[in-house]
Specification:
The complex is a heterodimer. Chain A has twelve helices and no strands. By secondary structure, chain A is mostly helical. The longest helix of chain A is centred in the first third of the chain and has 32 residues. By secondary structure, chain B is mostly helical. Chain B has 16 helices and four strands. In chain B, strands 1-2 form a two-stranded antiparallel sheet. Chain B has a two-stranded antiparallel ribbon with strand order 3-4. In chain B, strand 3 and strand 4 form a beta hairpin. The longest helix of chain B has 32 residues. Chain B starts with 11 loop residues before the first helix and ends in a 7-residue tail after the last helix. Classes of the chains: A mainly alpha, B mainly alpha. Chains A and B meet through helix 1, helix 3, helix 4, helix 5 and helix 7 of A and helix 1, helix 6, helix 7, helix 8 and helix 9 of B.
């Protein structure tokens, strides 16, 4: 700033460092240091439960092990299909709800607040109470499904074909409001004169939707999906409490597998390598996605 | 009657249709939550009856079970006891059990409170300082620093949990309130900085400049002029941080066991005799979710900002 020592007290520069310093230091200590530490451990055969045993440098062995393990690719597939279905459903339903809410009927605000409630709840606790709704003997979900279409007895969590859908349903129930809210903001940002001009040009409602509404909402929808994508790639809490990765490993997402390797088998070196790979993946995909998103925005 | 309706305004029929669909969706989406609250007021038998009971005789058994530890006793032993002192003892005795003491729930709940408030205060305070500096000063590498702060949020918690676990074990911070407060503060900092920067950007610079011409130092101007102006934003940010700490599970389950365990890893462990005690789990869930629902209603105007780290504003 050009203002120098015109005012009393510390200079702006000093205040700036004083204000930013603590935040950066804390992040370095509790976020970056552990990350660097994890990278370091990923090159060793360290076991965190064996204190006193000197870890040895093993080079890229852990990385090779992770990438050659078939089970890891299965986990990645489970994660990818979980992400695909949740993002698809949340995009469609969220956008649909936003379009409806944008008609500004009475009670609109109250209903928005009510719809938003599920996404503010603790995912772990949500997972616990959905095990009750999915209970094959007494669950409300099973009752409602059988009420409309008699399936007889079925077990959403216990069956390896249904369990992946069980977690998709809960995640969609919980997070659709997220895409909805962001799409709604997108819809409200469209200036009215665009529609007025289209109306003058006798564009049909459908044409207005395709050529005005959709392109304006798209960047917002993509942003929402970016946030959801990152979150669901890391997904842990809700699924752990709902299915704990089972049955077998039908819903064992990458994070859950990582937790098992790191905190149950205590293979610290190996799991660190896996963590680094996951981290690079999320960062890589995230960056590419943001680039594509910005290109679409520019158009 | 208003006849000057713009042709852009949706017709009243389409508005009614939209409202109807939204109401149906809202009802469906609220069923799981209402069901949990209803279950908390059922007794153990009613909670496992099929078809599920929509109408039932309300009972506080779930709440009693949530707050107490009980043990099953023989009828003879129960007969030999003096008559129950109060309604909850009577309720437990009717199940052929006696209360052996309070459960851990209250302790876990207050851990959630302590860690939540502690970390919220710290992250909002530090976040406000950093946000102000980013908003007003020319900071070298500003965009890189801001992106760095945001990127810390992308780490899968499990990926850094092992090093933090080892680090905390060395520092004696494992399973302590302080350790969890520091950890949640750091996780929330990115959100706090980004949100508060947005709010501070909206406060005109002229306010504190005027104050500084009147003889305030930069620090005084910040504390006496800017902070009061940013109060709404600070409150909204604080609620978001609080909700995050309140809901956090991964770090809590990995880094705490007894002393500093919060409610989310504890609630799933409320298990009754011979199967899950659904009313008690319902009661714990209800008490745990209630504050968040109230906060959500208070926050509704700022929700969008909070969930997108300030990327989307209304």
């Amino acid at each position: 700033m050009s203002v120098k020592k015109k005012f009393k007290g510390l200079s702006d520069k000093a205040v700036g460092w004083l204000f930013i310093g603590p935040t950066v230091l804390l992040l370095l200590a509790i976020n970056i240091y552990p990350l660097v530490y994890a990278i370091k451990m990923s090159f060793t055969n360290f076991y965190a439960n064996k204190i006193g045993r000197e870890p040895q440098f093993v080079g890229l062995k852990n990385y090779i092990k992770v990438l050659n393990k078939e089970a890891i690719w299965e986990k990645m597939q489970v994660t990818a299909s979980f992400m695909f279905w949740t993002l698809l459903l949340q995009a469609i339903i969220g956008l649909g709800l936003a379009l409806l809410l944008n008609r500004k009927f009475k009670g609109n605000e109250l209903l928005t607040t009510l719809i938003v409630l599920p996404m503010m709840l603790s995912p772990a606790v949500v997972g616990v109470f959905w095990t009750y709704l999915y209970n094959p003997q007494v669950g409300l979900f099973n009752y409602v499904v059988n009420f409309f279409y008699d399936l007889g007895s079925f077990d959403m969590i216990g069956s390896s074909t249904l369990a992946p859908w069980a977690i998709v349903i809960v995640d969609t129930w919980m997070w659709t409001p997220f895409t909805m809210l962001i799409c709604l903001a997108g819809l409200r940002s469209v200036p009215n004169y665009l529609y007025e001009a289209a109306e003058v040009d006798r564009a049909s409602k459908w044409q207005q939707f395709i050529y005005i509404t959709l392109p304006s909402v798209l960047p917002f929808l993509l942003l929402a999906l970016l946030f959801r994508g990152i979150e669901n790639f890391k997904m842990f809490d809700m699924v752990v409490e709902l299915t704990s990765g089972g049955p077998g490993s039908a819903t064992e997402l990458a994070s859950i597998n990582l937790k098992r390797e790191a905190f149950e088998k205590w293979k610290t070196g190996y799991s660190s390598a896996f963590a680094v790979i996951l981290f690079v993946t999320i960062f890589g995909f995230g960056n590419v996605y943001v680039k594509v998103m910005n290109k679409i925005k520019e158009r | 009657m208003d006849t000057s309706r713009s042709y852009l305004e949706p017709s009243s029929f389409s508005k009614k249709m939209a409202a109807a669909i939204i109401i149906v969706y809202a009802v469906i989406t609220l069923i799981p939550i209402s069901w949990m609250v209803m279950t908390s007021f059922k007794n153990v038998d009613s909670a496992i009856s099929y078809p599920p009971e929509v109408l039932f005789e309300p009972s506080l058994e779930g709440y009693v079970n949530l707050f107490t530890n009980r043990s099953r006793q023989s009828q003879e032993y129960l007969d030999s006891l003096p008559p129950p002192q109060n309604w909850y003892e009577e309720l437990v005795r009717s199940r052929e059990m006696v209360i052996t003491g309070p459960s851990k729930f209250l302790g876990r709940y207050s851990n959630s409170m302590i860690i939540g408030f502690g970390s919220t205060f710290a992250s909002v305070f530090l976040g406000a300082l950093a946000a102000y500096a980013f908003s007003r000063f020319r900071v070298p590498l500003k965009d890189d620093l801001l992106f760095f702060i945001l990127s810390t949020r992308m780490f899968p918690p499990i990926a850094v949990a092992v090093p933090i676990f080892i680090m905390y074990r060395k520092l004696g911070l494992g399973d302590t309130h302080l350790g969890m407060i520091i950890l949640y503060t750091v996780v929330n900092l990115s959100l706090a900085v980004w949100l508060l920067k947005g709010f501070m950007d909206e406060i005109p610079k002229e306010y504190e400049e005027a104050a500084m011409i009147d003889g305030y130092s930069r620090l005084q101007a910040f504390f006496k002029v800017v902070l009061p102006q940013a109060m709404t934003g600070i409150a909204a940010t604080a609620i978001f941080c609080m909700i995050f700490s309140w809901n956090e599970y991964a770090f809590a389950v990995l880094l705490t066991q007894f002393n500093a365990q919060t409610a989310p890893p504890f609630i799933p462990t409320i298990i009754g005799e011979g199967g899950l005690d659904w009313p008690a789990i319902g009661a714990g869930t209800t008490l745990f979710l209630l504050p968040v629902m109230i906060f959500t209603i208070i926050l509704r105007k700022h929700l969008l900002r909070g969930i997108t780290f300030g990327a989307v504003r209304k």
